[in-house]
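JOB MANIFEST
job_type = single_chain_structure
chain_count = 1
residues = 472
[input]
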Amino acid sequence: MTEPSFHSVKDLSAIRQTFDRDGAVFINGCDEQSLITLAKQLGQIVKPRNEVGSGTGVSNIRFAPRLEGKGYSSEELFFHTDRSGWETPPSLLITTLKVKSESGGESLLVDSQEVIKTIKAKDSPLYDLITNPKYSSFRNDDGILSPRAIYDLDSSIFRFRFDDGIQLSASLIDRFPSLRQRIYEHAYAISFEPGQSYIVDNHRFLHGRTSFIGSRELLRVLAYPHSTNTVRPILFDVDGTLCRAEALSIDAFYRCVSDVVGKSITNENTTVALHGVTDLSLLRSILRFHQVDEAEIDAAAARFFALHPQYLEASLTNGLASRACPDVADVLQWLAGETQKRSIMARKVLLGLLTGNSQANALLKIKAAGIDPTIFDLSISAFGDKHPTRLGLIEDSLGKVRSRYGQHVEAGDVTLVGDTPLDIHCARDAQCRVVAVSSGNHAYEELRALGPDFVCRALGEARGFLAVVAYY
């Protein structure tokens, strides 16, 4: 590992973002009070097991033979997970060095993600053993051994220790030298100065300490992060936001509706608003404009949406293109990576579509523009073949999110990304955040005047704002 980069203890935003990215963050200027304040900002502090002190939750890890555990000796403290015997160990391990020893006493860290990656690629029998709770047990605070996988595939918790707090099966004991080797080949040591500290994800990083001579004191807090089960849905409009496909849309739409009603309906002989409305609303307006009997409109709409996909395919085959808007591919690829993070401090990012297009129409245009449609979670998306208004789309999507993640999700947790004034107005009516991008038919100045949360000329300019969405 290269020399660690340290953040100020007061820079909470940088601490959160670095931790979420790396699973570990290094901090300067952290005394005991700063440690307590930081821990309270990040989570719920766990009461120390061995010490009864001021009630702050701080453990003083020092040479204290009367206390249980190698941490209270001057011997090497082997790699381990704190509270490894608990069903769900505290995920935040926060420390600061109070007194540096005369020699030795370096902090040891290893990222289990690198260990797992190596074992999975090079030693599949060992991988099978450490991911199965049949082969390892961990001792809880009552002294009872409970079967738990070293690496739990469901929770992604990596737990380990080198002492009598773990019991291994004979088959895993045989493979233990290989496991130890993989751990140590990814390990690194850091010599901290007083006031320097680290926070690590206790579900991901193993930590330890080299032996030392002289007095050494490390202050430690364990904590469960404050509830971060609030999700952050980011919902994208399609036309003018993700891609431009006006000619394709118009050609397929009017050819299909003409065949459904049995007469020529074109853009030229139809005076209805095309932009900012849903496909269902647009279709009904066109049918009424051409005096289709009101009693027949619902049936005609059903036939239209059943046939429309094949007309879209034909228009595409005939050379009518869909092209991605500027920066879209890069921003979506980055956001897709954010959705895959096992985040402790950040919110869970969800990517969806909120568009006036029918689902078939939206997905075809996205795919034709070279955008991977699997980036988007269709189970939280809303499409214009089901709703006549854009506000109905927002309500539909929010309802889907709440049904999956809980009723606590608020409209203010949702961010809409669109290119029209109507997108901004609907977001405001629904009390959602909104990013406006002038990659469609409306100018930057026009959109800015409406007061969206963020306005840009190309989606790449919104990357910083969208990053903040994941944290606040």
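[summary]
The radius of gyration is 29 Å.
The chain has a mean pLDDT of 91.
exit_status = 0
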